[in-house]
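Re: your question from the hallway

Yes, I did run it. Sequences:
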Amino acid sequence: MKWTLLVIVAVLALAASVVLGPAAVPLNELLRSDIVWNLRAPRALLAFLVGGSLGVAGASLQALVRNPLADPFLLGLSGGAGLGAVIAIALHLSGPWALPIAAFVGALAALGLVYRLGLIGGAALDPRILLLGGVAIGAFAAAITTAIVSLADASELRNAFLWLWGGLSGASWDAVLLVALYAPLPLAVLLAASRPLDLLALGEEPARYLGADVEAVKRRVYLAASLLTAAAVAVSGVIGFVGLVVPHLARLTWGHRHRALLPAAFIGGGALLAIADTLARTVVAPRELPVGVVTALIGVPVFALLLRRWTIA
Amino acid sequence: MRRFLLSVLIVAGCHSTARQPDGPSARRIVSLLPSFTEILFAIGAGDRIVGRTTWCDYPPAALAIPSVGDGMPPNIEAVAARKPDLVVLYNSGPNVTAAKQLERIGIHTVLLDLNRLEDLGPAARTLGRLTGLEERAESLATAMDAFTSTNLHPPSPTSTIAFVVWDNPPIIIGTGSYLHQLAALAGARNVFGDVAAPSAQVSLETIAARDPQWIAVLSDSAVTPGFAKRQEWRAVRAVRQGHFLLLKGSLFGRPGPRSGEAVKELKALLAR
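Structure:
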């Protein structure tokens, strides 16, 4: 029942984001419209894939670091991606994919550094060190980014922040294809780790007694979730709250078993971002809101309600 | 319109913090906006400028003046080191703070609005008063006012245009910007005439649906912008057809004494 409902919501969200938009396209011309085919449809699908990926990455990382506040960008990836993008603009790298590739490389560099920090003190990825390392590397990257922006001459650098703070304006069939080919691997790795993630929630020692290869699971989950997030940030910038709120919402309905939680977070995250992007495009048309503003405006009240329920219960 | 002009004048006057209208004229001026540098040269005060921003590249003689940085925000010590008796700043938040700091160390400052073409006349008059070059300033201001007042009866548009300031997310120019005015004067209708702000983020599909004949970008190079090659931008007809207007930033990037020249050049580009 709840699955049916979730799928219906997702389908409606996708349909709405194809039908609704600032440009008036009559319903009977929907299938023939260039705007619908080349702009709305890829944008709706990209929103869904990115939202879903962020939902799954968030749910996995929350389990990995056993911290309900974890979100996909907590571990320094947004800082790294931003630095990559700003360097690309400062160096005048041109080409249609220069910015996404630079952001992806930046995110991977941050990922590598945080991972390396996480290995300090033995082979165990200590969640506390991961969190601290993520915050530290993120802050360091942000500092270098700000230094470049304030020192470099390129006036367009100021706009790099606009790009970084999220949006699906760059959606194209190429981008959809890229994410659709890339995301399944890390998603499958995370889904395959469902059972050990359930065990990990009990704590590392109990998980080990119950037969989980804790170190290997942590490494796999961390890398898969981060690679998923790096791809999301490359195609759409840093879109907040989806990866934080959706896992909690899914957990309320589907419980803590990751085999159900992760797919629910994927579909829920996809639906939320598709809805948020449709609102971003339409409510103030012809202008457009940054989609991160909409996800926060929806996400934070929902989150506040949730916190209330938890503290009362 | 006249009331608007008047109110701009009053506003511009109010921002003037140089408290000695009858005192000695400024001899050592630091100009912190390329437009002010151009106006000062145009009224014959160019040889009194002792500091400029890195962006002040016109007239060529301006390049010989020492730069005090990019001016965003102004480096107070670099400005003070030029020992100016007047610092001219664009009226914006960070500059108001900077002006207060400069006043505190005894340097006179003036904050001027310069967002629209109507602001040019009042700015020229204020600078004329502060430099004691009222006559030449008045003739420049009169010319600028006359030029702007054609705004009231712009030629009926023969083509449509969209100014794209940034591509991801797409940011366009609305009626609040002088670029909208330049387009109108050159006989082009800005397809985002319903956006009141100087600039705004819009959806790509809005640009595609409004289907401008020309996409104008401020650019110092002669090559089409990178986004022209991006798949999603191909949904815009002007992009597919390569109908780009590459507008030189040093001419089009600022309202100033050469805005008339900018209009002429835009007209010529549109007539190609």
